[in-house]
Amino acid sequence: MTHTLQIRVYYEDTDLAGIVYYANYLKFIERGRSEWVREMGVDQARLKATGGGVFAVRRVVADYRAPAVFDDLLDVQTRYLRHSGARLVLQQAVLRGDKLLFEAEVTLVCINHAGRPIPLPDSLTVHFGKNPPERS
Description:
Elements: E1 2-8, H1 24-39, H2 44-49, E2 54-64, E3 73-84, E4 87-96, E5 99-111, H3 122-125
Antiparallel strand pairs: 1-3, 2-5, 3-4, 4-5
């Protein structure tokens, strides 16, 4: 299951060299993850309010392949890889047309109000079908 979010590069996204500032790719993929969860019908505000937890980034392994520049139209792709207990692993990519600009493997954890891991919500994991969970 892959979700795609289209975004435009604005002047504020670029650095002195006129290319997208490296940290902004993390913002782009955050938006992609948020929309991926929303598309699955998970209301993150309601989840938090009912004690179902919030998602926190635990790990990001990123590779910058090529620069994006002002006014580029980019596709942010988010793809489910695996999950276990409180952990969810996603593959994310930023492309301009067919050209891969950035990719990352992102590990999220679901945590409660005290910052302790809790199981991923059923409202999310129901979408993962019969894929076997990751072993920790």
